[in-house]
Amino acid sequence: MSIPVSSMSFWLNAFIPRDVFGATTMLRGGEYKGSIALSKPPCYLTDQRNFSNDLRASSRMHSFVKVDLTTSQPVLTQQHRCDDLIQCDPATGEVLSKHRVGTSNMTFSLEATSPTIFIQMACRYSGSIPRHGYGIGETEYKGTIEIDPAARSIDLDMMICLFPAFEGYAAINNGPGAILFRHAPPAGILSLGPPRGAKRRIRARLDDKCFSRHNDEHANNGV
């Protein structure tokens, strides 16, 4: 018998992968010696990682949403974060700028609670960035999340940009994050010029079987 659902949560990240084929280089000096940066100006540091369900993983945009189901009506809480955008000189490694944008344009709203929970999301990378580069200043994700507590399922229908990378995860009752989707930039995307706006549609679903299988794998791996 499945454990009753007291909460469901999900989180979304937009991040620059550690290595982007043909577009990244390793810094040979400076404060971030050994780190990977974009090889063409503005040479921003990447997020030094690949896909990860770690809530603390460095990201250009991070959104965490939790729906509490223990009260008479679902209660939505949300947290958003944008980590530092650091520009370095690719030859010397000297830090040229360090910038963190605000999260005022990152919002989730509870639109309906019956028969399923319907959430609208509209999140855009905001703030004054002197040199966007690679379309980073255009990064956004938007769309809808539908949660069915009785079926223990979550459905995602959203739009994302072609760059950088995007990922989504979901969990029941604060359990381990199961993969909703992972999207890497298409090969050669940076040679085509800065990609603008959220034009790639992503649809994903996790149901009770998916969550149960993921929890079993998580337990068997001892993590």
Q: What features would you describe in this structure?
A:
- The strands form four sheets. A five-stranded antiparallel sheet has the order 5-4-1-12-13.
- With 223 residues, it is mainly beta.
- Strand 12 and strand 13 form a beta hairpin.
- It is elongated, with a radius of gyration of 19 Å.
- The protein has one domain.
- The chain starts with 6 loop residues before the first strand and ends with a helix.
- The chain has one helix and 14 strands.
Low-pLDDT regions: none
**Distance linking N and C termini:** 23 Å
User: Which value, in Å, is the CA radius of gyration?
Assistant: 19 Å
Mean pLDDT: 89
Total domains, how many? 1
Order of helices and strands: EEEEEEEEEEEEEEH
Strands of the biggest beta sheet: in what spatial order?
5-4-1-12-13
The biggest sheet amounts to: 5 strands, antiparallel
Global structural class: mainly beta
